[in-house]
Amino acid sequence: MADLHKYNRFYLSYSGIRLPLKLVGPLEPSEIENRNTFFASKEDDQGRVTEIAKVVYNEIGLHHHYRYHDDDQSLVEAVITTDGETHTIQY
């Protein structure tokens, strides 16, 4: 069962292929209760997305963790976990 307490925003999907993923179709917390699939995200104090989880039937099927340069929006690292495998991309 996915622990969603640390996430503060929810979305229907994402667009594009570049990282960090661009999440689209915002959902209210009450709207995810009966959804089979959605994306949950967490932002830092600068408004940058630091984590994304794809939730499928209340389990996390895909997880992204992003680290940024201190002074801007560009990524330093993306750690992607899917199907039990973790891949790290350095920028």
From TrEMBL:
A Pfam family (short name) is DUF6156
Indicate what this protein is called per its UniProt record: Uncharacterized protein
